[in-house]
Specification:
Length: 622
């Protein structure tokens, strides 16, 4: 519907409303300080959405998002005003509407001036305050890290060179080479003032993946010895502590994410990018200068490009091209971080290896949670390293679990769950079989794919008083997350679903509030599970063929084995809005003039193809 076509509809909706001549409302756009993942697949796209809101003295309209192309629909400005005026909490028009852009005024005047409402281009203080509050919800402590491009001498091409190295490093995943954190010595031929001589891939313990860099062996030993004393790590450090984090684009500094998206810089698997950071004195968060950035680039390339035979030999040589020129370096594997904890305190280090560390209340946990916001992430990574280096050791960093559950090995048990969309009549439901050792994050994706949702909004599992959510939702409603949720990827399904505890609630889209009841129907053993996995293969293939398929594709985490009726359309107003759509579809001649028939007229509410749905759900992997 174009703006011209929307004017009569808007005027018809507003004509009967009273007007308060002394009021003025404000309408304007804003880009959120956060990127969101759009779609699925190996090569995800990211969008930094914008929104339009109408602010009145009594409240605000429902925010209107940009589309996936980052653009507003032509009628969005007018729609936001109509939404606010017709809301039950409002029910009137203002004497004037203020906008910041002349194009918005041109869109509003044909509809509003005939109703006696002035449209003026003026500053929008109330709207700015509203958007500032929303930004603070997303970044309550502000942007912790300055952007890479703020560093003197930094260029897009230098960042591109780092991004290429980071993508290759993330794909190589050297933290998977060992259960312990390996240490590599790097000798830089002809460079006497190289900033680092030792590197250690981070991530073997499931903490933040990336690369730690140390100037000397003494620095690494000091770091290992002081694992329980965060203050000592910074107090005794000789200069900044540098590392490269790897994270998905929405989690990196906003200024860096803008550069990655605007210039289409390379990303690693699952859209992961590199974040080079330095901490000094326990307070400041730094970005590397161009020269340090080149050394980081070389260090990542030399680990990403090593062959299996070179790894077995334990030493190799490379010449890496960087924006600072070619760097020739010799790499040698010198052990694990455990080997660097002895030094002069050998007995103490030996005790650390033999027995678990017990962190008393008020110790490490309190130190991390009371640290400056810009340091908490790095300190959490250090704490996870400590736990990995000390077999049997446990430490607490607050109530939230950090590790992600990745099901592996043959399935011993699986759960058969019935997921019912509450309030629908006839019921919309799906039956999902899923590994018992899968996480609630896996179940979230299974529900999304089985139901037919698009993962475009926030969601939440309620397990009694426990609330869980997985990362990756997209939409403006992200700003209303109150932070009280636990990571769904850290909780196994069989921790909750038992004979005595068979029910959970899954809510999707806090605006439309689609509430699903998830009920355990039965538990099946591995043999029955494999029968379900193989039974849906086309043309009843032989056991040998089925085995090859499992080997080639990997065994699925979840299946869809049944269901009825189509999923409601997104953003249709929840159960009540969908019920209205069903009434319209049942009597199309009665609603032929209703514009919603243009949007929903081709929906078949009874449609459901279990084969196609199962094919989508099977694509979920650990």
């Amino acid at each position: 519907m174009t703006t011209t076509e929307s004017i009569p509809f808007a005027q018809a909706s507003l004509a009967s409303l009273s007007k308060r001549a002394d009021e003025h409302w404000e309408i304007g756009t804003h880009r959120l300080p956060q990127y969101f993942r759009v779609g699925q697949g190996k090569h995800p796209r990211y969008a930094r959405p914008g929104l339009i809101v109408c602010v009145s003295p009594g409240g605000v309209s429902k925010p209107i998002n940009t589309n996936d192309a980052g653009e507003f629909e032509p009628e969005a400005v007018l729609a936001s005003l109509v939404d606010r005026a017709t809301d039950k909490s409002c029910g009137h028009l203002p004497g004037a509407v203020h906008v910041a852009e002349a194009s918005h005024a041109e869109q509003l005047r044909p509809a509003m001036e005939p109703l006696g409402v002035r449209v003026e281009v003026k500053p929008l203080p109330a709207l700015r305050a509203f958007y500032a509050e929303l930004d603070n919800d997303l970044y309550p402590d502000g942007e912790a890290l300055p952007g890479l491009m703020t560093v003197p001498g930094m260029t897009v091409e230098r960042v591109r060179a780092l991004a290429e190295a980071g993508a290759a490093f993330a794909a190589a995943a050297p933290w998977k080479w060992s259960d312990e954190e390996l240490v590599f010595e790097m000798t830089w031929d002809g460079i006497e003032d190289a900033p680092w001589s030792l590197v250690s891939p981070m991530g073997a313990a499931g903490e933040c993946e990336g690369l730690s860099l140390y100037a000397t062996r003494e620095d690494l030993s000091r770091f290992v010895r002081n694992q329980q004393d965060i203050d000592a790590i910074f107090r005794e450090a000789r200069g900044a502590i540098w590392s490269v984090w790897i994270d998905e684009l929405p989690a990196i500094p906003l200024a860096d994410a803008d550069v990655w998206v605007e210039h289409r810089l390379p990303m690693g698997p699952d859209g992961r990018c590199v974040v080079p950071v330095g901490m000094e004195g326990g307070r400041a968060t730094l970005r590397p200068d161009p020269r340090r950035l080149a050394f980081m680039q070389a260090a990542m390339w030399v680990l990403a490009g090593v062959s299996p035979s070179e790894r077995r030999k334990g030493t190799w040589v490379r010449t890496i091209g960087t924006p600072e020129g070619k760097m020739a370096l010799r790499v040698r594997e010198v052990g694990t971080t455990l080997d660097f904890g002895a030094g002069d305190e050998g007995a103490e280090a030996g005790e650390r290896k033999r027995g678990p560390i017990v962190v008393e209340p008020g110790g490490l946990e309190e130190a991390i949670m009371s640290a400056p916001p810009e340091l908490r992430r790095a300190l959490l990574a250090m704490a996870k390293k400590m736990e990995a280096r000390l077999p049997g050791g446990r430490m607490s960093t607050g109530k939230r679990r950090a590790a992600k559950i990745k099901p592996a090995g043959p399935v011993e048990r699986a759960l058969v769950l019935r997921v019912t969309l509450k309030g629908t009549e006839p019921e919309v439901w799906r039956r999902i079989a899923i590994r018992a050792d899968a996480s609630f994050a896996h179940l979230h994706h299974a529900i999304q794919l089985a139901m037919g949702w698009t993962n475009s909004h926030l969601h939440e599992f309620k397990l009694g008083k426990l609330r869980l959510a997985a990362a990756g939702g997209f939409g403006v409603d992200a700003m209303w997350d109150d932070g009280g949720q636990e990571p769904a990827g850290a909780y196994r399904l069989d921790e909750h679903f038992t004979r005595a505890n068979k029910k959970a609630t899954y809510t999707y889209d806090f605006g439309d509030s689609w509430e699903h009841t998830v009920r355990l129907e039965k538990t099946i053993d591995g043999e029955v599970w494999r029968g379900l996995v193989d039974g849906a293969d086309a043309a009843a293939p032989s056991e040998g063929t089925r085995a090859k398929r499992r080997t080639r594709k990997g065994e699925p985490i979840a299946l869809c084995t049944g269901g009825e009726r189509a999923c409601p359309p997104e953003d249709c107003g929840g159960v009540w809005g969908y019920q209205e759509i069903l009434e319209m579809l049942a009597a199309p001649e009665k609603y032929s003039d209703d514009e919603r028939m243009e949007w929903y007229g081709e929906i078949d509410p009874a449609a459901f193809d279990v084969g196609q749905t199962d094919g989508r759900v099977r694509a979920i992997r650990a």
